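Students often ask what a 'structure token' actually looks like in practice. Rather than answer in the abstract, let us consider Xaa-Pro aminopeptidase, a protein of 440 residues. Its sequence is given first.
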Amino acid sequence: MIHIPKAEYTRRRKALMAQMEPNSIAILPAAAVAIRNRDVEHVYRQDSDFQYLSGFPEPEAVIVLMPGRQHGEYVLFCRERNAERELWDGLRAGTEGAIRDFGADDAFPITDIDDILPGLIEGRDRVYSAMGSNAEFDRHLMEWINVIRSKAHLGAQPPNEFVALDHLLHDMRLYKSAAEVKVMREAARISCAAHVKAMQASRAGLHEFSLEAELDYEFRKGGAKMPAYGSIVATGRNSCILHYQQNDALLKDGDLVLIDAGCEIDCYASDITRTWPVNGRFSAEQKAIYEIVLASQEAAFAEIAPNKHWNQAHEATVQVITAGLVKLGLLQGDVDELIAGEAYKPFYMHRAGHWLGMDVHDVGEYKVGGEWRVLEVGMALTVEPGIYISPDNQNVAKKWRGIGVRIEDDVVVTKQGCEILTGGVPKTVAEIEALMAAAR
Ligand code: GLY
Ligand code: MN
Ligand code: MN
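Now compare that with the structural description of the same chain:
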């Protein structure tokens, strides 16, 4: 299995600590276990920030980073080994494993955190945490601070500055290392195979969930623990619902099916959309729309390179889509004026992409100082233009209504331009029709 090497977690912690102000401390909790119903839990997914800094896969854990601490800069609070619980729920690292296998300098039982952590915070001037994202943890943090304040008359020094950790950490996460790109390539490779499988399986009479099952099978067989987000399998008019999740409609002859799905490997997402005809042959109208979306995506790729700004790829898609809709008679008027008036928005209402990484809609600022961010080597993003003609759009001829097309790929910015991670699924009309014909 391809995964992030241990040494990279050490490097990340050191890089973060190097950016923290002198005499500070950073504190991050693991994701909580989420209850699904009664005593059934959701599949556990570690918090992305916590995972980024530790690779530690368990709940009930807290990372503490203390730059310059003599007895070790990286302290991990975690669950203790427990034969009875491990018999039921699986192995735990325990405090010894946290040091031996996960690089902690020091580890303590999570049950002792209230006794130990105030002592670690005491005397540090600043506390970095993900303020505001976890109300329960924020409350605990204030309780630990209050323990120190209550001892002020004994000379205890509570910190006097609280700093949001996100700014430093999320900027680090925006730039993908070689090891991260390797993991993202693997997630992309498996997701491509899944889309190919679903294309080959597509037939009228099946249901959307039949194709979802093909995706899940390939994801799991490839070693992915789970999809990176709820798979969208949308046929017919459902393809015009951007985040459709129901996935239970019948696949009909003559309709398109839009699949937006990707798996996650070692907590790194992939995010692919392909749209194809259920019966393997595009109709004239479906093909006309599809070709515009595809051309707009090609135009966007050409705008992804170091020193291009974030919005250029989006602007390229708007240009091609608006011109294409005019050519088909779906919009009337001058292309530049239509763009200025956002006339394309009833057909193309979302942006051309987003950052991609540990979170499918990954962290990182899109604007810096009020200006669109300039792309740099190692940034990963999606390119996902689409045209959606509402089934209720009375302004267009009936033959166009209910057609929804999105094409989405994942890219990493390179020195020369960008690397497309998800090139392994057919994309042109000819390629898709050939693959589907061969599977019949
Ligand atoms: N799958 C959600 C998105 O493409 O942004
Ligand atoms: Mn996306
Ligand atoms: Mn997507």
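One point worth highlighting: The chain has a mean pLDDT of 97. Ask yourself how you might have guessed this from the sequence alone, and why that guess would often be unreliable.
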